Amino acid sequence: MEISGETDPREILGPIAHIYRSHLAYMVKELEAYGVGSGQFEFLLILYHKDGVSQETLAKILKVSKAKSARAIQSLEKEGYVYRQRDESDLRAYRVYLTEKGKEMRDIILEKLISFMDILLSDFTLEEREIFRLLLHKAAIRFFDPEFEHPTDTPMN
């Protein structure tokens, strides 16, 4: 479908949104037994790359509000996956660190992510998987920068 000679945005953005929602629903179901709720695993994924990130940085990276970030971190703290510590250079801020239990969740989360990816790409050839990966990275690269904000962007709830 085309609109004014251009690709209809729904042809690309619709499937991306559907994959994202399906991914979240899958992860919620798979991680429910571990007390990790919707979107919380994403905070753990960031901490696996860089432990001790500030709450504000986590919110920026994940493009969520500070309030949503605080709620997710509180839930993860309550379940024993993370702990918060005052930032020595800015006493108003907190840094978030993985507990041993949080570190142990890494392999479980990775296993669930691989399972979802296997479902998503099950009808792809190896060559199609690689092309898909490269095109996704090309499309998303500017959004990986936590400082990137479109002029009309507002943080998500």
UniProtKB/TrEMBL annotation:
Gene3D superfamilies per the UniProt record, alphabetical: Winged helix-like DNA-binding domain superfamily/Winged helix DNA-binding domain
**What is one Pfam family matched by this protein?**
MarR
Instruction: Give the matching InterPro entries.
Output: HTH_MarR-typ, WH-like_DNA-bd_sf, WH_DNA-bd_sf
Does the entry feature the keyword Ribosomal protein, yes or no? no
Sorted UniProt keywords: DNA-binding, Transcription, Transcription regulation
All copies of domain HTH marR-type, residue ranges: 9-141
**Transcription listed as a keyword:** yes
| One GO molecular-function entry | DNA binding
Protein name listed in UniProt: MarR family transcriptional regulator
